[in-house]
Amino acid sequence: VVMTEPNLRFISFSTGRRGCPGIMLGTTITVMLLARLLHGFTWTAPPNVSIINLAESKADMFLAQPLVAVARPRLPAELYHTK
């Protein structure tokens, strides 16, 4: 995962001497969260969606339209419940 963007439009942890000292921790946690979500669930588009639009908004860094996905657990339900 590359956390730098060539045009520097988005700097999540600042840069230089005043950069965030927790950049490695934040990056590691973010990557682990994404990996656990991808590994723990089977992801599909909702039944009524045939095309997924990933076009960016012109005003900000968000998608032009929200991304909606259906997550189905890969493991049996009893493995997800804790008491």
UniProtKB/TrEMBL annotation:
Molecular function per GO: heme binding; iron ion binding; monooxygenase activity; oxidoreductase activity, acting on paired donors, with incorporation or reduction of molecular oxygen
The EC number(s) this enzyme carries: 1.14.13.-
Keyword Heme: yes
Keyword annotations: Heme, Iron, Metal-binding, Monooxygenase, Oxidoreductase
Stored InterPro entries: CYP450_AA/FA_Hydroxylases, Cyt_P450, Cyt_P450_CS, Cyt_P450_sf
PANTHER family listed in its UniProt record: CYTOCHROME P450 703A2-RELATED-RELATED, TYROSINE N-MONOOXYGENASE
Family the entry assigns: Belongs to the cytochrome P450 family.
Protein name: Tyrosine N-monooxygenase
Species assigned in the record: Cajanus cajan (Pigeon pea)
